[in-house]
């Protein structure tokens, strides 16, 4: 027996233990259809005095021709019902029910219904597929149906942390709030990229924790004029290897996705909105550390070049060059270990302001190079003391001798 059916009149999925109040029993003029095989169903167990719980039965009592899929879909429905109750308990949720946008019982997608919630002036559609995601075409069909039926709604997909929906990679290190932090990292699949490209939001739900993704795009720093990236002691890998964050959503060209964990209840902390603000704050801090890291590495490459190409020291007895070479003045902040793709052993500098470091990165040159101003007047040179004549020195010796002789 089945626990759910497609209600052709209401155009939504109904559950035998949740949404049958007021539904007519029996065939109801062909109102109920199987969500797996598309056959007509009979609602039983709703009459007064029934000795069984309500359920949907196929005609003839033979059951669904695909019982395993029917059982999986019933289990997925249970997850949706629990998610709906969690969302109803959030602050700021005014209305919450279930919906099945774009579902065609003649061509079922195998996806459980979605939860539709009203949060202030915002409508949010939550998807919670529990099995392997359907094909990209079925995903696009659901997304287009949500746009048609609920224009302007946010479309959020809560996925599971299992192998069917979570292609886990090695942990990703980031510099966050004064220390190294490891974020989980995943490789997005075709369906997840399709959701993102269509304007949807992909999150992972793990109990009361939500994992919000940002993009990770790896690259190599270009070698600019006056830089040396090859003579860095105690650097275990190429210091040019680095990464950029794309936020608040992963960019289409991101190689992988990093995940920020936040509390499920924080999604509606600001009343009247649905937004992972806590995750966005973390991403902003990662971006600030990134800009400081970019600036520090480029500055060090210039310092290394200046050291390697410094002129040899002057030999003893030779006059030093009266025109000293222009020197780079560098800050000496307290060292901290900024995270990077290279995992260097030598600490990087503390985080600077985004505005200063971003300007340095875009200009492609140092912002702290000191260039002496051109003097308006020639520099003043004090005259050397006048040399005394031999005659004066002779009288001084005579005078001193006469004084010693008369003493």
Percent of residues in beta strands?
15-25%
Number of strands: 18
Helix content estimate: 25-40%
Largest sheet data: 9 strands, mixed
Approximate shape: elongated
Structural class: alpha+beta
> How many separate helices?
6
* Order of SSEs: EEEEEHEEEHEEEEHEEEEHEEHH
Radius of gyration: 37 Å
Rounded mean pLDDT is 80
Low-pLDDT sequence parts: 323-346, 349-407
The end-to-end span amounts to 139 Å
Would you write up a description of this structure?
The structure is a single chain. The chain is α+β, with helices and mostly antiparallel strands. 25% of the residues lie in helices and 22% in strands. It contains 6 helices and 18 strands. Strands 6, 7, 8, 9, 12, 13, 14, 15 and 16 form a 9-stranded mixed sheet that branches. A 3-stranded antiparallel sheet has the order 2-1-3, with no helix packed on it. Strand 8, helix 2 and strand 9 form a beta-alpha-beta unit. Helix 2 runs parallel beside helix 3 and helix 4 packs across helix 5. The longest helix is centred in the last third of the chain and has 32 residues. The radius of gyration is 37 Å and the shape is elongated. The C terminus is likely disordered.
């Amino acid at each position: 027996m089945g626990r759910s059916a497609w209600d052709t009149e209401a155009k939504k999925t109904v559950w035998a233990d949740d949404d049958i109040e007021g539904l007519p029993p029996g065939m109801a003029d062909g109102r109920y259809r199987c969500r797996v095989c598309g056959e007509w169903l009979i609602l039983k167990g709703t009459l007064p005095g029934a000795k069984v719980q309500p359920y949907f039965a196929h005609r003839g009592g033979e059951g669904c021709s695909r019982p395993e899929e029917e059982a999986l879909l019933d289990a997925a429905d249970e997850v949706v019902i629990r998610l709906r109750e969690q969302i109803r308990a959030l602050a700021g949720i005014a209305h919450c029910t279930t919906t099945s946008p774009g579902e065609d019982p003649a061509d079922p997608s195998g996806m459980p219904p979605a939860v539709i919630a009203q949060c202030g002036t915002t409508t949010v559609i939550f998807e919670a597929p529990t099995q392997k995601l359907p094909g990209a075409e079925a995903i696009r069909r659901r997304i287009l149906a949500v746009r048609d039926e609920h224009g302007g709604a946010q479309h959020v997909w809560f996925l599971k942390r299992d192998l069917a929906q979570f292609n886990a990679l090695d942990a990703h290190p980031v510099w966050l709030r004064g220390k190294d932090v490891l974020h989980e990292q995943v490789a997005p699949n075709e369906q997840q990229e399709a959701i993102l490209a269509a304007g949807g939001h992909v999150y992972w739900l793990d109990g009361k924790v939500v994992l919000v993704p940002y993009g990770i795009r790896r690259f190599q720093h270009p070698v600019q004029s006056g830089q040396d990236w090859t003579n860095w002691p105690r650097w275990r890998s190429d210091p040019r290897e680095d990464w950029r964050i794309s936020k608040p959503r992963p960019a289409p060209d991101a190689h992988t996705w990093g995940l920020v964990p936040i509390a499920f209840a924080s999604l509606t902390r600001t009343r009247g909105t649905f937004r992972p603000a806590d995750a966005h704050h973390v991403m902003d801090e990662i971006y600030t550390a990134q800009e400081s890291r970019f600036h520090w590495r480029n500055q060090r490459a210039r310092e290394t070049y200046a050291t390697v190409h410094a002129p040899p020291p002057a030999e003893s007895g030779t006059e030093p060059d009266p025109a000293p070479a222009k020197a780079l003045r560098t800050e000496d902040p307290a060292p901290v270990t900024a995270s990077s793709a290279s995992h260097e052993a030598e600490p990087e500098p503390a985080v600077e302001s985004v505005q200063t470091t971003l300007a340095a990165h875009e200009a492609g040159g140092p912002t702290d190079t000191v260039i002496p101003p051109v003097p308006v007047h020639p520099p003043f040179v004090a005259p050397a003391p006048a040399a005394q004549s031999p005659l004066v020195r002779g009288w001084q010796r005579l005078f001193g001798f006469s004084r010693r002789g008369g003493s």
